[in-house]
Amino acid sequence: MSHAYPNAQALPVGVVVRRAPGVTRWAKFAWTVSSVLPGAGSADWKVLREEADVTEFHAATLPLTLYVSEAEAYAHELQARVPSVYVVLRPADHSADMPWSVALVTASPYEAQDYCDSAEELVEKVAMPEGLHAWVASFVDEHYEEEVFVKRRRDRARVDRVEDGIGDARIRQISDVYRAPRRKEVAG
Question: What's the half-sphere exposure (Cβ side, CA atoms, 13 Å) at 2?
Fold first, then answer.
């Protein structure tokens, strides 16, 4: 696969969206992303399973692209208690049959957070399947090098001997710069 970014890798990931009855009278349905399907073929809201009032759709398949510049974010996600991928759903056109369209699949928690800052999109966190976890982990192993923390050492210069910032160096003062100004004697 050729990419605009060097060393980037992509994998098609299917997004499974679950439609369940709404829990309030204002929402007819509750929409959630229930799983992802690594290596899935293309789909457009294909019904996978119907059980009572709950329907699961293979909503879409998008590329999950890993970028070298985001390797630290992927490493951070892999260390989470439940490593996850994030799916961004965007409101669809009002004429569409489904109220959401799948906008993005990412393994970066930082990128997902950027979408959370907008009230427009719905960001869903989905547990990373084992095979996807292995693919992301091998990418991180290849491209991420943790920076070694180096404690900064203090300079040996003695800064307590110079009164920096006290008064103006161009003006000679023989008395304490913090003294109260002298009163002028008024001849009366």
Answer: 0
